Amino acid sequence: MDPSSQLPHLFRTEYRKIVSVLCRSFGMRNLETAEDIASETFLTASHTWGIEGLPPNPTAWLYTVARNKASNHLKRISTFNNQVAAGYRERQEKEDWQAPFEAGLSDALFEDSQLRLMFALCHPAIPGEMQVALCLRLLCGFGIGEIADAFVTGRETITKRLLRAKERLREVSVSMELPPYEQLAARIESVLTTIYLLFNEGYYAGGSEHVVRRDLCLEAIRLATMLVEHGPTNRPETNALLALMCFHFSRFDSRIGEAGQVVLYDDQDTSSWDPDWVLRGGYFLRCAADGDTVTPFHVEAAIAYHHTVQGPGKWEHILGLYDQLLQLKPSPVVAMNRAYAVFKVSGAREGLAALESVKLNDNHLYHALLGVLWSSVDKMQARDHLKKAIEIAQPLAIKNALQQKLNALEQPLN
């Protein structure tokens, strides 16, 4: 087997485990050291495997090399006594602490370490975009170029963003400890929001080459699943977010046509929606009902569910849910989505009336919706808004889909 074909997959799945265990041992102040050791481990694998071939157990080989590199690092770095030793000795004194990779390479160790790292990276003191970038890098194993693609920005920008985020982690002395139960409710909101942003980066990817990113969506689902499977974080809002993502993901394959074109919701082939993901979403939504609190994730999950079904009263249900969401989470985007539900229930003029108070002039979806609503009222207005949407939209596939709408609208005018 060609080692070069195995390394990318192993990097994606094992890099995060190595980093999380090293951070747990060294502390978050030495995050970059953990990254360096993990990166050097894969560089060694690339060189060694290219000459000697793939070892019998590549994963165990990586952990052994990472452990040796960590041990060598502690012995040779001249600043060790000032930066690491005090915390290292303090942790050694605890009965439950063991050196990197010496506690047994169990799934439980890796998952617990990744949960700790997730809460550390999603500390409230870290800005949202930085949280997502850190999670993509350290918990999902994404390279700088992949993160840059996800954010539709340059590699240099992402590199600087990650450096600033790591500096901020050091400034606020973020630890790798899970927050105590009484603080969990406040801290988990940041974690769930970060996972949701990560999912949206994949589901509504803004890059010119990728309109959707399956890998980002699945990573977000994986992280949320880890939280659900961990007792203290298995909360109603966690299940609601996981249900929301499952419902959305059930329609993932229908959103892009065979030629790579964007397929809008009303044009999607419902037979391509995946019922298994809908069933998963239903399970987690029922789990989310175990409590008195209704969060925006609960309502959004219910809306996403109704988008996966057909039948009478569908849009009336969705409109009622958007009314509830607007009370819980008032925002122009929610109001815009509600206006589309009004249109589906009551017609274009009522939809336009619902949009009067919404001002999202820099949002291509806003102008695209106005183009749809005006198309049966004033075709000139509709054409102007569709042209504006095409001008603002970044992914070429979305521009092409909007252009098709504009071409269909202009045909009767010629």
What's the short story on this structure?
The protein is built from 20 helices and no strands. It is mainly alpha-helical and 414 residues long.
Describe the structure.
- The protein has 414 residues and is an all-alpha fold.
- The protein contains 20 helices and no strands.
- Helix 2 (31-52) crosses helix 3, helix 7 packs across helix 10 (181-203) and helix 11 packs antiparallel against helix 12 (236-249).
- Residues 92-98 have low confidence and may be disordered.
Q: Notable features of this structure?
A:
mainly alpha; 414 residues
Radius of gyration: 24 Å
Number of helices: 20
- Strand-pairing-aware structural class: mainly alpha
The main β sheet shows up as: none
What share of the residues lie within helices? 55-70%
- The total strand number stands at 0
Please state the average pLDDT score. 84
Q: Uncertain spans, ≥5 residues at pLDDT below 50?
A: 92-98
Q: Give, in order, the helices and strands.
A: HHHHHHHHHHHHHHHHHHHH
Given the C-alpha coordinates, what overall shape results?
globular
Terminal Cα span? 60 Å
Q: Strand portion, in percent?
A: under 5%
